[in-house]
Amino acid sequence: MPTERQSESARINGAKSHGPKSAEGKKKSSRNALRHGCTAGHTILLACEDRGDFNRMRKGYDAMYKPVTMEEGNLVDEMFAAAWRLRRATTIETALIDLEVINEEPKVKEKFDTFDGGILLASAFRSLADESRSLALILRYEARLRRIHKQYYDMLLQVRQGRQSEPAPPEPLPPPAPTPDCTPQSDAPEVCAPPTPAAPPPAIPLSPKPESRCSHETKGLQNEPAAQRLRRRFRSRKERKIFNAASLAAARC
Predict the structure, then answer these.
(1) Which is more confidently placed, 243 or 9?
(2) For a tag on the chain, would you pick the N or C end, based on fewer CB atoms within 10 A?
(3) How far is CA 124 from CA 105, 117, 131, 142, in A?
(4) Residue 191 pLDDT > 80
(5) Are 135 and 229 within one domain?
(6) Listed range (104-113, 168-177, 219-228, 233-242) with the worst mean pLDDT
(7) Please, what's the b/e burial string for 117-151 (b: 16 or more CB within 10 A of its CB; e: otherwise)?
(8) Mean predicted confidence (pLDDT) in 1-28
(9) Which domain holds residue 219?
(10) Under a CB-based contact definition with an 8 Å cutoff, are residues 86 and 145 in contact?
(11) Residues 83-103: pLDDT tens digits?
(12) Cα separation of 253 and 251, whole Å?
């Protein structure tokens, strides 16, 4: 544990620091450890690169692959980051050869009276291959970024194939059809009509039609003796009903 004297000394030495104080200075100092940006995980667009080209390329990747889910969107983002860094590595490779051509041009002029662009380019390439590791390093970065882009592209295809092979959700069952006696309305509650009562069975006539009784049967009953009429009263219940019905019919006639 530091003593009080050591803590006081650390505070005094910290106050003598001449590090960046402004926001712009701190932003610049945060990039001091950045060498080339080809393998930086948190940096995609560098300060020397064109943001307009960056945005156009990003929109082109979205329009080409059209991610649907969040997982597909992340894979497309990784593919775009690899493609943008691959473009940066290609630019660095071209710039390296251009710079070496400029450096080798005076040497070639001293050795040869006449020369063409092929000789100058070959001299620059030999100088880079023999004296510098820059060209070999940038070529290795390009191969690595191409593998990364292909890897995320294959993963995107697998995700889409798996999503397309998933069974579709079952369709909802259709609502039951309303019955004729119970028709739902739009805003009012459902009101069901009472069931129609069944029609009673037709009554079986117990006696002939009144028209037939008006002719000869009624005349026979009127001429019937009193004793026979009295005995008819004491017969079965069915016969008494028939007798009463005939009597009423005769009275109507």
Answers:
(1) 9
(2) N
(3) 8, 11, 11, 20
(4) no
(5) no
(6) 219-228
(7) eeebeebbbebbeeeeebbeebeebbebbeebbee
(8) 70
(9) 210-252
(10) yes
(11) 999 999 999 999 999 999 999
(12) 5
Cβ neighbours of 248 (radius 10 Å):
13
**Structural domain total, the chain:** 2
Q: Is residue 155 part of a domain?
A: yes
Residue 8 within a domain: no
The token pair at 131 is 């004296």
**Any residues with CB less than 8 A from the CB of 206 and at least 6 apart, and which?**
241, 242, 245
* 217 lies in some domain: yes
The CA-CA-CA angle for residues 173, 178, 184, to 5°, reads 110
Mark whether 145 and 225 lie in a shared domain: no
Confidence of residue 13 (pLDDT cuts 50, 70, 90): confident
Residues 39 and 156 in one domain: yes
Q: Cβ(206)–Cβ(171) under 8 Å?
A: no
- The string of pLDDT tens digits covering residues 64-89 is 999 999 999 999 999 999 999 999 99
Of the residues 164, 188, 218, which one is the last residue of a structural domain? 164
201 occurs within a structural domain: no
Last residue within a domain, chosen from 133, 164, 195: 164
